């Protein structure tokens, strides 16, 4: 049967994720179709999906230390039914409003955002984020019964997050027995209702659609009314059109150029014309040099003066001593011819000899010496006087030089001031013009934002028109061809069957989707009863891929988007495993390796029976993705995270690789999502 | 031996014995009229009286600041900049001067385990009849040394040593 592609299921494409950090931004870009993120563990692969989920309304974010240290907030650029939006969310305050810009990331500064409450507990200025997502994807905003079989059961909103449960399989979900929260009975009812909603199987589908059309029509009227009012307000207040505002900006830009050039001219004129003062500056410098020279001379003279004064003091003291000695010597008795002992060796010596040895001088000698010292003192006094006079002369010279220097300096100051003042005045005027122009520019840019906001209203009205038309089409379809639950389950079963046979799993028979649980059944065993973790991985992935395929081929409410974290969970994949599987001996070793590396949530023996370790299964899984992408790449988006890729197709898969992380940064790979986190990175290398 | 044709005042006998006589006269007997000056102490006190700036610094450390006036010729001279440390320990020369003084009967010896020196009447008369400015100055400085008289030689040298770098 030919597979006609009907493009009417909503579309959600993630185009770019930017984590705005303290020092830099961390960017991941995506394309339509298959996207692969793979690499070493602990590098942030799962974080990427986690943050995308958070930006799409998730309640929590899995914070880890590199992100906590380096991240501030995140921006997610998405295309919802062909319209681009940027969703901005704070990484740390999960209760903060979510901002949505009607543009790509590059242009968010040119428009005002909408503000939404992250959950139903808190409404933003523009409502709830879930409602925004539903409206943007043209999905009806409805309520469902909590206990569908009871007529009097209370109604709860069916949110975007309920639908997104089918779009994101995280590490815990893949191959989990608790897939889609099926063990939580009260929650799972809603999940089943969501399944029905996605496939337009709800009893209230038609009524819901009609209500939605009604709501959207009213909203469109509101927007048209607002548009009219704001338009006329802008007209009355003479707010220019976008074109006229752009023209004004161009004029301002020209004026700005001229002002800059004027400033340049003034500055250069000012500099060149002051050369006439160079001569005066030179003279000033010469005076300065002379003053320095004289100062040095003066200091030298002062040092010499000090030395002479010191010498004079010495002479004076010597004179006093000798005058006193003279008095004593005159009155000493005549020397006596006696013998005494040498004070050192105690040998006998004459008293006269001892006196002579110890410096006895005649009164005559002392008097002559005193006269000599007097004459020395007189000479040195005359030198001291000379020195003092010279110092005074130098002082006077310095004073005169300083006076002249100051005269020239003052003259220079006055003249340059006289000369520069007009330039400075001119420049001030021009700078003030520049400031005004900058203000004017800011004002016009703000007006532009207002204009754009008005245009947005118009665009939203147009979008609503398109949505209403589409809804009306759907309504017609629904009325004509009421989809049956069995038909839908059969379609999904067919796709799942095809998938499981492609892998292939062991004995791919009796495959279906349970009417009761809306979960897969393999070999007539319910999904939750499958004991092999590896088999559950394949079946859970296959199930969601089937829903995705169905939404591409049929008209559903599924947004044709799927994220899967750790595709290779429980499945044998690496080269070492290939080696192991080729040596069937030593089964014990194999089992031990399994136990070491696999989650406890699988029955290892069952895995072995299912031959999950067969690397061909893993390869075929990726071959399936490649094939799927080939057929439907523009109609859907899949983002896969895995630890590594099957060796045989690793090269072929490179075209889909969006990020490849290696902890040691080899082969030009980034070390992780936060690629400049050094400390943690070092720790990882040491592990 | 040839004598030099000039006098170095500090090596003149009259200058030295005059100073020593004043020191012995002013400090030789304590309150109980007991002789207290031996050869070493005389040498140390002679050093202090010769270097008033250092004496002043030592007295400051004993809490006796401003006891003496520091005159113009007491600082800023070459001697005060670089005082001769040897003279502090030159007991041999001091002994010689004391010998002369004893021979001339200007001082006498008292023996009490150690040799102490005290003034004689003749010696006292010689000093008191002289009124030269330098002598008066030495008397003033010698009296200022009184608070240090009871310290031992070792203690005195310890107190003086920090100031022998010059002024």
Notes on the structure:
The complex is a heterodimer of chains A (687) and B (167). Chain A has 687 residues and is an alpha+beta fold. Helix content of chain A is 56%, strand content 12%. Chain A has helices spanning 45-55, 65-70, 129-136, 160-164, 185-198, 205-236, 242-273, 278-331, 351-357, 363-480, 485-502, 533-553, 575-582, 587-597, 604-609, 615-632, 650-653, 678-686, and strands spanning 12-21, 25-29, 33-39, 71-80, 83-90, 98-101, 114-116, 143-145, 155-157, 168-169, 339-341, 348-350, 512-513, 520-522, 525-526, 561-565, 637-642, 657-661. Chain A is elongated and about 155 Å long. Mean pLDDT of chain A is 85; it is low at 1-7 and 574-587. With 167 residues, chain B is mainly alpha-helical. Helix content of chain B is 51%, strand content 7%. A two-stranded antiparallel ribbon of chain B has the order 1-2. The longest helix of chain B has 15 residues, at 13-27. The radius of gyration of chain B is 16 Å and the shape is globular. The N and C termini of chain B lie far apart (36 Å). The chains are: A alpha+beta (687), B mainly alpha (167). The A-B interface holds A 309-311, 313-314, 316-318, 320-329, 331-333, 336, 338, 340-341, 343-344, 351, 354-355, 357-361, 365-366, 369, 372 and B 6-7, 9-18, 72-73, 76-79, 81, 92-93, 95-100, 103-104, 126, 129-130, 132-135, 137.
């Amino acid at each position: 049967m030919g597979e006609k592609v009907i493009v009417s299921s909503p579309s959600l494409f993630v185009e770019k994720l930017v984590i705005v950090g303290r020092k830099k931004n961390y960017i991941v870009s995506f394309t339509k179709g298959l996207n692969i993120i793979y690499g070493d563990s602990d590098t942030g692969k799962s974080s990427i999906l986690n943050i995308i989920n958070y930006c799409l309304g998730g309640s929590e974010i899995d914070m880890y230390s590199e992100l906590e240290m380096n991240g501030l907030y995140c921006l997610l650029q998405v295309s919802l039914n062909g319209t681009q939006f940027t969703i901005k969310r704070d990484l740390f305050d999960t209760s903060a409003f979510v901002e949505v810009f009607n543009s790509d990331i590059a242009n968010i500064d040119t428009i005002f955002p909408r503000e939404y409450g992250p959950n139903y507990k808190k409404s933003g200025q523009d409502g709830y984020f879930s409602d925004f997502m539903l409206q943007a994807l043209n999905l009806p905003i409805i309520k469902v019964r909590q206990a569908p079989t009871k007529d009097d059961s209370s109604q709860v909103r069916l949110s975007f997050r309920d639908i997104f449960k089918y779009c994101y399989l995280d590490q815990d979900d893949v191959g989990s027995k608790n897939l889609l929260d099926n063990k939580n009975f009260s929650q799972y009812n809603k999940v089943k209702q969501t399944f029905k909603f996605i496939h337009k199987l709800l009893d209230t589908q038609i009524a819901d659609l009609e209500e939605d059309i009604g709501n959207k029509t009213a909203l469109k009227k509101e927007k048209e009314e607002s548009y009219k009012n704001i338009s006329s307000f802008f007209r009355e207040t003479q707010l220019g059109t976008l074109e006229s505002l752009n023209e004004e900006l161009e004029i301002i830009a020209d004026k700005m150029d001229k002002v800059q050039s004027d400033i340049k001219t003034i500055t250069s004129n000012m500099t060149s014309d002051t050369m006439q003062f160079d001569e005066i500056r030179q003279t000033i410098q010469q005076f300065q040099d002379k003053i320095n020279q004289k100062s040095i001379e003066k200091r030298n003279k002062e040092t010499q003066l000090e030395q002479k004064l010191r010498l004079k003091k010495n002479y004076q003291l010597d004179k006093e001593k000798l005058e006193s000695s003279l008095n004593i010597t005159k009155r000493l008795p005549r020397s006596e011819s006696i013998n005494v002992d040498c004070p050192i060796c105690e040998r006998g010596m004459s008293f006269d000899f001892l006196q002579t040895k110890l410096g006895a001088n005649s009164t005559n000698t002392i008097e002559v010496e005193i006269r000599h010292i007097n004459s020395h003192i007189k000479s040195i006094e005359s030198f001291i006087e000379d020195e003092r006079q010279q110092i005074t002369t130098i002082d006077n010279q310095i004073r005169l030089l300083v006076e002249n220097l100051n005269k020239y300096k003052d003259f220079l100051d006055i003249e340059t001031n006289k000369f520069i003042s007009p330039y400075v005045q001119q420049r001030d005027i021009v700078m003030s013009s520049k400031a005004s122009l900058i203000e004017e520019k800011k004002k016009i840019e703000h007006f532009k934002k207002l204009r754009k906001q008005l245009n947005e209203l118009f665009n939203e009205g147009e979008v609503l028109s398109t949505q209403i038309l589409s809804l009306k089409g759907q309504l017609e379809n629904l009325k004509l061809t009421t989809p049956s639950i069995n038909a839908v389950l059969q379609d999904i079963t067919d796709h799942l069957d095809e998938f499981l046979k492609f892998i292939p799993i062991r004995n791919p028979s009796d495959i279906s989707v349970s009417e009761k649980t809306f979960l897969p059944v393999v070999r007539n065993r319910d999904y939750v009863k499958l004991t092999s973790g590896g088999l559950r991985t394949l079946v859970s992935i296959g199930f969601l891929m089937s829903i995705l395929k169905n939404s591409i081929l049929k008209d559903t409410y599924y947004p044709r988007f799927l994220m899967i974290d750790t595709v290779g969970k429980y499945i044998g994949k690496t080269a070492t495993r290939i080696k192991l599987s080729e040596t069937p001996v030593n089964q014990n070793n194999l089992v031990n390796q399994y136990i070491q590396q696999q989650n406890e949530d699988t029955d290892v023996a069952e895995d072995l029976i299912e031959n999950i370790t067969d690397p061909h299964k893993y390869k075929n899984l990726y071959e399936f993705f490649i094939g799927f992408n080939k057929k439907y790449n523009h109609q859907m988006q899949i983002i896969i995270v895995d630890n590594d890729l099957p060796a045989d197709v690793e090269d072929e898969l490179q075209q889909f690789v969006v990020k490849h992380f290696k902890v040691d940064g080899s082969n030009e790979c980034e070390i992780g999502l936060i690629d400049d986190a050094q400390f943690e990175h070092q720790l990882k290398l040491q592990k | 031996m040839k004598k030099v044709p000039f006098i170095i005042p500090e090596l003149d006998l009259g200058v030295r014995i005059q100073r020593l006589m004043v020191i012995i006269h002013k400090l030789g007997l304590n309150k109980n009229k007991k002789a207290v000056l031996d050869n070493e102490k005389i040498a140390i006190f002679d050093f202090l009286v010769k270097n008033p700036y250092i004496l002043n610094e030592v007295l400051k450390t004993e809490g006796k600041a401003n006891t003496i006036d520091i005159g113009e010729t007491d600082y800023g001279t070459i001697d005060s900049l670089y005082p001769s440390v040897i003279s502090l320990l030159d007991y041999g020369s001091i002994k010689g001067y004391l010998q002369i003084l004893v021979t001339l009967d200007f001082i006498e010896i008292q023996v009490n385990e150690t040799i102490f020196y005290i003034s004689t009447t003749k010696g006292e008369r010689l000093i008191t009849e002289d009124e030269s400015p330098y002598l008066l100055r030495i008397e003033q400085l010698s009296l200022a040394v009184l608070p240090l008289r009871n310290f031992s030689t070792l203690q005195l040298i310890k107190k003086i040593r920090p100031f022998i770098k010059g002024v």
